[in-house]
Structures are given as structure tokens and as C-alpha cells.
Amino acid sequence: MLAISIDSGCAPVKGFVKKHGLFFMGMKVIIDEKEYGDSFEFQENEFYKIVDSSRDFHTAQPPLGQVLEYYNDIKSKGFTQLLDIHFSSKMSGLYETCLMASKMVEGLDVFVVDTKKVSIGAFLVSKRLIELAKSGMEISRVLEEVPRAISNSFMEFSVPTLKYLIKNGRIGKAQGLAGTLLNIKPILSVDEEGFITPIAKLRGMKKLQEQMVSNVVEFLQERRKDVVLYSIYGSEEYRPMMEETRDRAIEALKETLGIRLEDLELINGRIWPTIACHSGPAVFGLACYGEKNSS
């Protein structure tokens, strides 16, 4: 019997987690030296009430012993296999810790997956793999689909400052932007290895939004089947920017690619604390998923 787990760095959607009976692994969030466990309740009811007035915030991964305990708990519920899906291994040591734990647990075959994405991008990869697994596909075939799910997913986000990414060591290949953001707004993504990388630098919010919309349209040009659009924001002030950019993307997909609203699966959410502690809460982003039509 197969169990499936997703972590808080994959921006899980509550209804989706409940629908598919997923297990959930939360990173530790430390705010002004007080430790919290990332969870739906913490994300929805606590984090954004306290983070803006905090002096310091960062994350820590669950230790090896805790992961092993998590696996054994899943095994105790009668499961013999576990598909354990995680956000980019280049953003956290959690993936490697889970690999170690997977070799230590007895009586449970654990398949640890690196989505090589973060947040909303990681969710779209996870979503595809979970739906395949739940359709009855053999786990070996699901694992073979990981590269395709990654290549069919695109994510982008923008932050007004890189100080949190620098401070938390998550700057990746965007290091060259440090100190250059005066009046310049970057669009960041995740490269093929799973590192954060800049894909554009623009002056002004309007140009930024236009470029983000253009990026989505370009990515979906040859991927018009099973399209999903996931938009996300952090601090409340970024919600209107997220909503406007999302709505522009919906209109552009219809006008340019003929993808109608009723043909889209739309997901809207708020960035999880696990990722907001890396990027800073002042952030908004878009991710999309699409497949090529079979010819």
C-alpha cells in the first residue's frame, strides 16, 4: 500500500492534500528565536501576523531522527511504500536527510523525489506525480515521469530586495544582482539544477508584470494541454499585484494561445513560511504547468 508525502516547501494546497490523503512534512520556522512548525494553521493564522514586526526569521530542517520517526509512523499505519516529494535539494538539506532516513527505515520502501523547484513550481511537479500515482500507475513508472513533470512546469517570482535570500544563503545564481536593485525589479526563477537564478531585470512594476505574463505565454506555447496556473503572494500589499498579473496572464493565454478560462485550472494562495523565510515576505509569483498534445 502506497503513502504519499509532501513538504511545506512545495506550497501544498489544503484541498488537494485532503482529497488525496497526503502526509505532510513541515520545516521548522524560527522567528526571533522562537520555533514553530510550518503547517496549514501556522501559515493561515499566525505567520503573517508576526513576521512583519520580527527582527529575524529563518528555517531549519527536521533532524534525521525526526524524519525516521515520521517514516516509522507512516509504516505503523500499514503502508509498505512511500512516495516522499520535496522542494529543491539546492535550497535545503531536507532532501538529503530524507535519503539517509529512507535507507535506515525497515519495512517501508521510501522513494524520495527532488522536484528541483520551490514553492508553487514544486507543487505543480508534485501535483502531476501524485495524480499519476493515485490513478494506479506503478511507482516505478511514476518515478520515470519525474523529469517530464519538471520540464512541464515553470515558475517565476519577484522580490523588492535580495537581502533575505543573501542572508539565508539561498541567493543561488542571483548573486550578481546583489546591490543593483535600486529602481530595478528582478524576475527570478529556478534553473534545471534547482538553483534560484535571475531571468530578467526591469524598471517599473508595469514592465515587470508584462514580462511575467509574456514568460507564461511563451512557456505554454507548445504546452496547451492540462494547463494549471498557480499564483501566490506574501505580504498583503503584494496581493493586488499578484491578482492583476494573474488576470493579465489569463487574458493573454486566451488571446494569444486560445486557452479559455474554463480550460484552465486556477490555484491561488499565499506563500508558505518555509519559502517566505528565504525570500522575505514581500514577494509574489506565478507558476504554470502544461503538456504537449499527443500527435
TrEMBL record:
**GO MF annotations in UniProt:** lipid binding
Q: Which domain of life is it from?
A: Bacteria
- Classification via InterPro entries: DegV, DegV_C, DegV_domain_contain
Keywords assigned by UniProt, alphabetized: Lipid-binding
- For the keyword S-adenosyl-L-methionine, the answer is no
> PANTHER family annotated for this entry?
DEGV DOMAIN-CONTAINING PROTEIN DR_1986-RELATED (PTHR33434), FATTY ACID-BINDING PROTEIN TM_1468 (PTHR33434:SF2)
- Name by which UniProt lists this protein: DegV family protein
Organism the protein comes from? Mesotoga infera
